[in-house]
Amino acid sequence: MLVHHLFRRFLLLTLPFLSLPSLAQADNLSNLSDFATSLVAFGGPADIAGESDFGANGRQLADEFNGLNGFDAGWTMNTTFTPVAADLATGETRLLMEIGGTSNGTGLWLLDGVPTLALKTGAGLPSPISSVASDVSLVDNAAAIFSSYGSLSAGTSYSIAATWNANDTFTLAVQDNSTQQGVVQSTVVDGTSSSYNWYGNSTYNVGRLVGDPGSYGGLSGTEGTPFTAVDAVSMDGVSDFSNGTFNGFETLFWNEPSTLSVGSNLAVLTATIDLEQGDITISNPTSSSVTIDSATLIGGQGGFDDGNGAVQQLVLSGGNLVTIAAGSSAVLPGVSWAPSPFIDAGIALEVSGATTNTIVNYTGSTLLFGDYDGSGVVDAGDWPTLLASMNTSVADLDGIGRYMAGDLTGDGQVDRNDFRLLKELASGSAATSGSADAANVPEPATWGLIAVGITMCLCTYRRKSAVLATACVALLASTSTTAMAADIYMVSNTGEIRTFDGVGGTSGSVDQVGNFAGGTLVNTIAEYGTYQGFTSLPNGTVYGVNSAGGVDSWPTLADFTANTNLTTVSTGDPYGSLATESPRSGIHGFSFDGNTGGLYVVLEGPDENEGDLKQYSTLKNFVENNGTIYTPNGYAGNIMLMYYPDEDARFTTGLPNADAGPGSNYFHITGGGQFEGWEGTLTQSGYGMYGVGATPGGDGGGGNRSYQLPGFGNEVIGSFSIVPDTEEMKLLVDTSTGVVSLQRAAAGDRTIDFLRVSSPGSGLLGSGYLGLGANDEFPAGDGLGGEGWDLAPSNEGNISDKREYFAFNNDGTLGNSTISNSGDSIPLGLFYDTEQDLQDLVLYYDVVDPTTGEFISQSIIGGVYVDYVESTGLPGDYNSDGSVDLGDYTVWRDNLGADGSTLANRSVALNGSEIGTIDYMVWKANFGASSGSLASLDGTAVPEPTSGLALLGAIVLAALGYRRT
């Protein structure tokens, strides 16, 4: 390795464009080692020493060279030049020197005439878009450091240098070479990544821009001036620009840090911000008094407050703001620094008609990020700030306003992501992201599923449509089919049913066999060859779209392979017939969506719609063909095959090709017969393929696995994998009463701290969501950081989304609740709109470690994981006398807290739960109804509960306003 490094150094030392440093005063740099060599001294673009040996990040490159000699890693760039007026015009972005590009890079630029160091370590853009303030946080992958020297003057020779010392500190120096005066400023950049990708594409430009405008160091191609690369231009004014060089060898890039200096410090105004009190003190080091006429203040991520709230930018004008005597200081009136964790302010002051940037200093202690109550730690006291705005948009506020409102992530929304970040900050350790493994999330046991199935099937309710009618039988029967050896079933256009042992890893897997004929033949059912696709659901039911466009089902896999017990579950042929002539109708296969519990379909259709990927949130929507286009025109003649859970699906582990990295869990066959897959949710782009003859099963580009298996041809018309029933939790929705409950339907307990029920079609009631805290076994939060479940304030009136959070326990530890696998219902409220009956609900919840409370994984469940049921009898008629009246209220009151079996005509969604507030809500919503008809309240007096929980329930529900028509 040492020989390798020395050989590379020898190459560098012998390259003709390299030079030893000239340490003249105008260079602004000193303290470089005798062994130091500039990597580049070229008028670009230049390729640095062949590029290939240098890796992809600046820290790595610096370490390789300087580590041999004991030097600290880092770099320095310097240049001497003479600008003209055009280079300094407002709105101009002029190149001095830049290295890197692509999504990374570093450059010295003139922005509005102000020398600026721009850094970019990935996708992102320096912010704010102003040459007044410095953005010294790389949280957004970019930063910009503006010189306090201010705007340059035309026709004057300047030397500018920047250095990085590998300790997150950048220093920027600007010097007027005529007066030998200048400014040196050091800036600590936070939010840094593990490396500084100044290196980018290895090209180096000086004074002249060459190449792709999206690949200039430190700039971006995504937003407006002055940081957009397409707006950057070459210098007009140069000195000694000949033979492609810019100031000859006075423009250099050194692969170690140096000490920057200027001939004598320029006497400029300075600003000191008191981080605790907010005062902004301007100091005047000059020998005469100055009068500040106006001030432009930009907070970067922080902000200023003029009494109207914190904003990122303020302009104080009107003339004669403050006069400061020579050698004195004064507080800038009418404005204060808004207390925040950010210290990246920039201040430009206008004095006697000239505007100059000030050097900004700070005094006092900085606030901790997320510490809204100023306690010195992130804890329960900070939760109320987030909760007050939870699940609302703050996009109309600027950055500091968003932060003050609880938007920790800065995305314009106060939501689950901010909740997660707050708890991570409070825990003092990083949260674990991604899917939980099998050790954390146990799979349902066979007898546990049978028990749940028996319990559900004995309930006195009926399904809303034929497509759901087989669920109880399928749930019981599926327990005997999931143990079958074959993981994947494919059906050909001749009706052959063949099995494969997974996608990869065994001799009988898809990628090892390589063609349809290599599978194991189970049966041949000629009629199946005319179908448009098949899929299997976790409860064991198999669905198929037949040649006429109708939906058929088989209650078990065994029924499907034998073609027994077929049920047609839809009429009206919602998908259209599969025809050969154009324009066509029908589909190109479909699949269960393991990410949401819904289904995907690839449409056949006329040419302009061919290949659309359509998504359905529920079985009902699928049967009715009531979905939404997820990806238009992205799949052409491809056949949507299957969701395959054994690669990297939710709560599973064990890749069939464990040495190949993350796998795919959605697969299709292209028109050319290739078997291809996606990692995660389907997208139109990002998957790559190995060429013919390459090893199947490897990772393709874009992080998705693809298989080059043309042997499948056009034989396969549908496929599905055996998806285990991982009904982690599910919703039980009573479509006759509107009651919604939560059930833990799989073996083992589950510990959660976030719960959300959404309806994409706005099928919820504005009120009636009580949440977990309304149940005796879970604590209700107080909204002040105390222990328990807090409801999002936005729940009230929201007909598409209900959310609740468990932030902290009373002892300050991270809070959560454990949902047991008892199979009992946990009532959440009466908030499902039965009149619309959209059946599109989706359940979200976050799984956390029961001991530490730290985040493990989020689960999203919908479609087949939401049970839509309908109670029999007259809801609220608890004494079975044929009417809902005061007598039923008395029965409810006398049995409060008792087992639910004591109430007749109780909502089936409340199965297993104690009699409580929601039973009262059902009674109140149906008061005055009689057998055969349901009536609204119509002003009829409704008695309210008068004691204990009943009284509390009455107060909560007084504004329910729920009516039936």
TrEMBL record:
Keyword Signal (UniProt): yes
Xref: InterPro entries: Dockerin_dom_sf (IPR036439), EF_Hand_1_Ca_BS (IPR018247)
Keyword Signal among UniProt keywords: yes
Signal sequence interval, chain numbering: 1-26
Origin superkingdom: Bacteria
Keywords, comma-separated and alphabetical: Signal
GO biological process: polysaccharide catabolic process
Annotated protein name in UniProt: PEP-CTERM protein-sorting domain-containing protein
Organism expressing this protein natively: Aeoliella mucimassa
